[in-house]
Amino acid sequence: MKKCKVALTISSIFFLMTILSSSVMAKQLNFSSWLPPGHPIVADMMLPWMENVKKATGGRVDITLLAKGLGHPKSYFDIVKNGMADAGYTCNAYSPGRFTLSEGVELPFLGNSAEANSVAYWRTYKKYFEKGDEYKGVQLLGVMTHGPGQIHNSKKVAQSIADLKGMKFRVPGGIAAQVAASLGIVGIQKPASQAYELLSRGVADGVVLPLESIKSFKITKVVPYTTLVPDGLYNVSFYLVMNQDTFNSFSPADQKAVMAVSGEAFAKLAGRAWDAADRVGLADMKANGNSVETASKAFIAEIKEATKHLEEDWVKKANEKGVDGAAALKFFRGQVANYDVIN
Hints:
alpha/beta; D-Maltodextrin-Binding Protein, domain 2; 5-stranded mixed β-sheet; 14 helices; 11 strands; 48% helix; disordered N terminus
């Protein structure tokens, strides 16, 4: 009987030690977002990714969304780098000039699918952009692009550059701002979350945004005119990063597990969610009775002529960073064009 009690006691101690050990090993991380929990980026991309990380690591890496974002979208790289948050995301365009290579996937006419573009972006990053080391100081977990950027305004259907000239548009930074300027638009560089305020107060006449954002930012009624540009007027690229010390604190097995559900897997997850959100946004615009027209061939030709210098300029900047810009763009376009075949 005594031997049995001793054996049970030892077993109980061992069991408790195992539980305590697992608890100590678990990493409770925080994640900062500058968008509300209901936005598709958070609800359909970041939260599912966090759950995937938890499952992949057997609960040893558990990421929780903070109740309130920690700062302006353009500061998120430094917020994560400096350890204010363990992980976060934002778009490269909010820091013009800082992430030069990413601008290559934001150029006009690169594709109609966020999923195809996002996966192509990750593959292009790994093959070409990674050597540029633009995310030094953090662990880059993933990249993505939103759906094709379109033209939305409160005045009239735009079917020529002349229709847009002098209009004030909320624009992000980066390529989108340069595209807008090339079309004669007066750009107001503010986060998309401020679009409603700018439009409702008459500060801005329109916005360049993907279809998803019209519903997400509740501006359907204040931009009743939309011009669809096939393959996109532009794209905006995003990054998902983790504090380097945080990532380094994981075991090699958990680092591998986290990256297995990040990288291309994250690009695919996020891209599909963007595409679905674009469909919802378009349906909402039509239900509201908004005018939605496709750009005419003449307008598309005008846009291409007015913006062709942007690609030439980007290739030069990429080359200066030691990246073959022309080859990178050719690779990206090939990945987009053959995405359905490849996958």
